[in-house]
Write a structure and sequence with these properties.
CATH architecture: 3-Layer(aba) Sandwich
Number of domains: 1
Strand order of the largest sheet: 2-1-3-4-11-10-9-6-7
Order of helices and strands: EHEEHEHEEEEEEEHHHHH
CATH superfamily: Class I glutamine amidotransferase (GATase) domain
Helix content: 25-40%
Shape: globular
Largest sheet: 9 strands, mixed
């Protein structure tokens, strides 16, 4: 019998943000796991001392609708970076997207910036780097594929601890792996389908709608800039597949009576 995986989803969501539940559903769906495989820890509302990694097979880190690691201004910024470093030191397999990606970059000494020319909202084409060819996860993907995005802040410099795996036309750093650690992260959202990203667009419409643009025009614009992203959406399922293999390999052999 296959043992049940236990995954901790780290979130950065303001109190009452409906996207917290939406995010949990998206991660569980893309992983092809039931919701009871997941517990959540919200760095914006939970006490950092309450974080416990023991008993989990993996950590996943999601996005953030209300917070920016470039602008700062929230009292748990340092705690969040400490949490990221704690996860990396633990050696637990980790997959982070968007805000989680940026948290890993910043926690390891890389640089983030806000540049309108690098901001991406909708579906964009991702291109793998040469380093991705040998990566156990990204090496399975085609050289170019579509992914869902929604970010204003971007990584502009990586530390030597990070391997650069993917980029887009607007944004140089779209995916990374931490050297010698089972940790990968993406600026794009592999947990989101086209439909998911459209729902998120509608939820955060006040942030995305252009000045003077009416609701109908904004929604029509959203339909235009989103398309399906099957290869990106398969990443989390592949991560879970490798997680099961890792867990199986670590299981002690059964004793057979002679």
């Amino acid at each position: 019998m296959t043992e049940k995986l236990q995954i901790l989803l780290i979130q950065a969501r303001a109190h009452g943000d409906p996207m917290a539940e939406h995010e949990l559903k998206a991660f569980s769906s893309r992983c092809e796991l039931k919701r009871d495989h997941f517990n959540t820890f919200n760095v914006a509302t939970d006490e950092p001392d309450d974080l416990e990694l023991q008993g989990y097979d993996a950590v996943m880190v999601g996005g953030s609708g209300a917070f920016s690691l470039v602008e700062g201004g929230f009292d748990w910024h340092t705690d969040f970076l400490d949490t990221m470093r704690h996860i990396l030191r633990s050696g637990i397999p980790t997959f982070a997207s968007c805000f989680g990606f940026q948290g890993i970059v910043q926690a390891l000494g890389g640089k983030l910036a806000r540049d309108e020319g690098c901001a991406e909202l909708g579906t964009f084409t991702i291109t793998l780097t040469d380093a991705a060819d040998a990566d156990p996860l990204f090496g399975e993907l085609p050289q170019r594929f579509d992914a869902q995005l929604g970010h204003n802040d971007s990584a502009v410099e990586l530390s030597d601890e990070l391997i650069h795996l993917a980029k887009s036309e607007n944004c140089e750093y779209q995916a990374i792996r931490v050297r010698n650690r089972p940790v990968v992260a993406t600026q794009f959202h592999p947990e989101l389908t086209r439909c998911d990203n459209l729902e998120r667009f509608q939820s955060y419409l006040k942030n995305y709608k252009k000045p003077g643009q009416d609701l109908e025009a904004a929604l029509a614009y959203a339909e235009e800039i989103h398309r399906e992203s099957p290869h990106s959406c398969g990443l989390l399922h592949s991560f879970v597949r490798d997680l099961r293999r890792r867990k199986q390999a670590q299981r002690p052999p059964s004793l057979v009576a002679e």
